[in-house]
């Protein structure tokens, strides 16, 4: 078999960009991306795609209607495909055993059952979603228990390593591609098919074939190692705040060690980026966020009640509109609980998403009160009017280009900037009259109070 027709179930952050790149690089393959959500598919077929990723618009524009199709016809797409990617979401369970920790596999199971129900002939089923080890075995079980005599399946594990905000670049130039399969003749043949697809643009030495379980565990192990680094540097950041060391200097000094390296040693208000957060668990994502929120309150003379804070950025990182597990949700919730008024601006996150995130039951029991305290703006210069402070929660490049002199003029004095992402030029801001605070560094206000004989 040579794969001619690929189907991808799940048109989300993983399935959408991955299959768009496959369609782009493999004009000889028809790619059908399907989803149960009509809204999502409508957006994929429009000029405003449901997700923002640099470069994605161009790829989709070139391939859509040629060999890339988005639809809700899940059954037809499964029937027509030689190879089916499962890239549905595996959200952290919000109920039952493993609540707040374990991945919920119900969507994957639904897909497996749907494939078993409608598939005809031989199919390769590729697990792309991040799953616990041996999930492929569960898929195999469901498929084999429901298979008709004329149908056969091979299950592969092909975990995704893209980072949101750089998805297209990561997909085009991956560090490596993992393809895990059954150790049998049929398994090897299936691995060869998927390898052939990637070989359209990825050099062979970057394609690693391994057993299914090794592949699944490699993905989780990579996430855990990344999480460890992020979590370590954030612990160091807290120490810096307490001792007067500067986390930027410490990270740079430690990162010079070739055994350690400098990547992923940037302290920030975010602990778990989405891909690493499950390994670390959501509760720990909240830790640096709470520390940062507390610091803001302390610095603003121990109260933010009825003060207006201009929030720059709501996405969990730059170049994405994704807010899942964004530290902004935690920081803002904390500030809202203290009665702060928040003026929020993000270049890509939809207004409705911010409202949903801050008023959803998981975050607050008082949605009506929260609605009154939050205002969302489309203009960064409007957002700072009469604000006591600017709070930077996402590292968007455009924040660095603002005219802070102009902003300072319209803010309440003393004007504060809390840079949760360490992206602004603090020296320049201080010269403009701002009081700046960042993470991983001792409070300047503390020392200010001490030197002026303050009472702390
Ligand atoms: P990820 O970041 O893993 O890509 P997303 O939430 O962005 O996750 O996307 C997952 C997509 O999968 C969603 O658009 C959702 O509607 C879709 N999905 C979930 N379950 C099914 C299913 N059983 N059949 C089809 N699509 C599904």
From TrEMBL:
<dbReference type="GO" id="GO:0005634">
    <property type="term" value="C:nucleus"/>
</dbReference>
<feature type="binding site">
    <location>
        <begin position="10"/>
        <end position="15"/>
    </location>
    <ligand>
        <name>NAD(+)</name>
    </ligand>
</feature>
<keyword id="KW-0520">NAD</keyword>
<dbReference type="InterPro" id="IPR036220">
    <property type="entry name" value="UDP-Glc/GDP-Man_DH_C_sf"/>
</dbReference>
<dbReference type="Pfam" id="PF03721">
    <property type="entry name" value="UDPG_MGDP_dh_N"/>
</dbReference>
<dbReference type="InterPro" id="IPR028356">
    <property type="entry name" value="UDPglc_DH_euk"/>
</dbReference>
<dbReference type="InterPro" id="IPR014027">
    <property type="entry name" value="UDP-Glc/GDP-Man_DH_C"/>
</dbReference>
<dbReference type="GO" id="GO:0006065">
    <property type="term" value="P:UDP-glucuronate biosynthetic process"/>
</dbReference>
<feature type="binding site">
    <location>
        <begin position="129"/>
        <end position="130"/>
    </location>
    <ligand>
        <name>NAD(+)</name>
    </ligand>
</feature>
<dbReference type="InterPro" id="IPR008927">
    <property type="entry name" value="6-PGluconate_DH-like_C_sf"/>
</dbReference>
<comment type="similarity">
    <text>Belongs to the UDP-glucose/GDP-mannose dehydrogenase family.</text>
</comment>
<feature type="binding site">
    <location>
        <position position="164"/>
    </location>
    <ligand>
        <name>NAD(+)</name>
    </ligand>
</feature>
<dbReference type="GO" id="GO:0051287">
    <property type="term" value="F:NAD binding"/>
</dbReference>
<dbReference type="InterPro" id="IPR014026">
    <property type="entry name" value="UDP-Glc/GDP-Man_DH_dimer"/>
</dbReference>
<protein>
    <recommendedName>
        <fullName>UDP-glucose 6-dehydrogenase</fullName>
        <ecNumber>1.1.1.22</ecNumber>
    </recommendedName>
</protein>
<feature type="binding site">
    <location>
        <begin position="88"/>
        <end position="92"/>
    </location>
    <ligand>
        <name>NAD(+)</name>
    </ligand>
</feature>
<comment type="pathway">
    <text>Nucleotide-sugar biosynthesis; UDP-alpha-D-glucuronate biosynthesis; UDP-alpha-D-glucuronate from UDP-alpha-D-glucose: step 1/1.</text>
</comment>
<feature type="binding site">
    <location>
        <position position="324"/>
    </location>
    <ligand>
        <name>NAD(+)</name>
    </ligand>
</feature>
<dbReference type="GO" id="GO:0006024">
    <property type="term" value="P:glycosaminoglycan biosynthetic process"/>
</dbReference>
<feature type="binding site">
    <location>
        <position position="40"/>
    </location>
    <ligand>
        <name>NAD(+)</name>
    </ligand>
</feature>
<keyword id="KW-0560">Oxidoreductase</keyword>
<dbReference type="Pfam" id="PF00984">
    <property type="entry name" value="UDPG_MGDP_dh"/>
</dbReference>
<dbReference type="InterPro" id="IPR036291">
    <property type="entry name" value="NAD(P)-bd_dom_sf"/>
</dbReference>
<dbReference type="GO" id="GO:0003979">
    <property type="term" value="F:UDP-glucose 6-dehydrogenase activity"/>
</dbReference>
<comment type="function">
    <text>Involved in the biosynthesis of glycosaminoglycans; hyaluronan, chondroitin sulfate, and heparan sulfate.</text>
</comment>
<dbReference type="Pfam" id="PF03720">
    <property type="entry name" value="UDPG_MGDP_dh_C"/>
</dbReference>
<dbReference type="InterPro" id="IPR017476">
    <property type="entry name" value="UDP-Glc/GDP-Man"/>
</dbReference>
<feature type="domain" description="UDP-glucose/GDP-mannose dehydrogenase C-terminal">
    <location>
        <begin position="310"/>
        <end position="426"/>
    </location>
</feature>
<dbReference type="InterPro" id="IPR001732">
    <property type="entry name" value="UDP-Glc/GDP-Man_DH_N"/>
</dbReference>
<feature type="binding site">
    <location>
        <position position="35"/>
    </location>
    <ligand>
        <name>NAD(+)</name>
    </ligand>
</feature>
């Amino acid at each position: 078999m040579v794969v001619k027709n690929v189907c991808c179930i799940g048109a989300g952050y993983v399935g959408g960009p991955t299959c768009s790149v496959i369609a782009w690089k493999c004009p000889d393959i028809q790619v059908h991306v399907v989803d149960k959500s009509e809204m999502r598919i409508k957006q994929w077929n429009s000029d405003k795609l449901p997700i923002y990723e640099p470069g994605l618009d161009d790829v989709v524009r070139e391939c859509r209607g040629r060999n890339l199709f988005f639809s809700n016809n899940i059954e037809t797409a499964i029937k027509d495909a030689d190879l089916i990617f499962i890239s549905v979401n595996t959200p952290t369970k919000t109920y039952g055993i493993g609540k707040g920790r374990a991945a919920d596999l119900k969507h994957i199971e639904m897909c497996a059952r749907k494939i078993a129900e409608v598939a005809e002939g031989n199919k390769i089923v590729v697990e792309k979603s991040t799953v616990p080890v041996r999930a492929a075995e569960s898929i195999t079980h469901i498929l084999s228990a429901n298979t008709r005599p004329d149908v056969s399946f091979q299950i592969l594990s092909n975990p995704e390593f893209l980072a949101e905000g750089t998805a297209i670049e990561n997909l085009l130039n991956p560090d490596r591609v993992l393809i895990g399969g059954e150790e049998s003749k049929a398994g090897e043949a299936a691995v060869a098919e998927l390898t052939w697809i990637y070989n359209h643009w990825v050099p062979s030495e970057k394609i690693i074939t391994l057993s299914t379980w090794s592949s699944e565990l490699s993905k989780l192990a990579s996430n855990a190692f990344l999480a460890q680094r992020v979590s370590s540097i954030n612990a160091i950041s807290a120490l810096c705040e307490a001792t007067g060391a500067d986390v930027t200097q410490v990270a740079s000094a430690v990162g010079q060690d070739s055994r350690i390296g400098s990547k992923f040693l940037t302290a920030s208000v975010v602990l778990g980026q989405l891909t690493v957060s499950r390994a670390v668990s959501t509760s720990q994502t909240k830790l640096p966020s709470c520390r940062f929120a507390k610091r803001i309150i302390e610095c603003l003379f121990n109260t933010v009640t009825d003060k207006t804070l201009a929030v720059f950025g709501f996405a969990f990182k730059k170049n994405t509109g994704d807010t899942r597990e964004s530290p902004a949700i935690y920081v803002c919730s904390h500030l809202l609980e203290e009665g702060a008024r928040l003026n929020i601006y993000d270049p890509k996150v939809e207004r409705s998403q911010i409202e949903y995130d801050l008023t959803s039951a998981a975050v607050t029991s008082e949605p009506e009160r929260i609605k009154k305290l939050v205002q969302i703006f489309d203009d960064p210069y409007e957002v700072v009017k009469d604000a006591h402070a600017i709070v930077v929660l996402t590292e968007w490049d455009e924040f660095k280009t603002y005219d802070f002199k102009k902003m300072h003029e319209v803010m309440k004095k003393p004007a504060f900037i809390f840079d949760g992402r360490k992206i602004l030029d603090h020296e320049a801001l201080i010269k403009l009259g701002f009081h700046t605070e960042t993470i991983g560094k001792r409070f300047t206000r503390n020392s200010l109070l001490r030197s002026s004989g303050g009472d702390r």
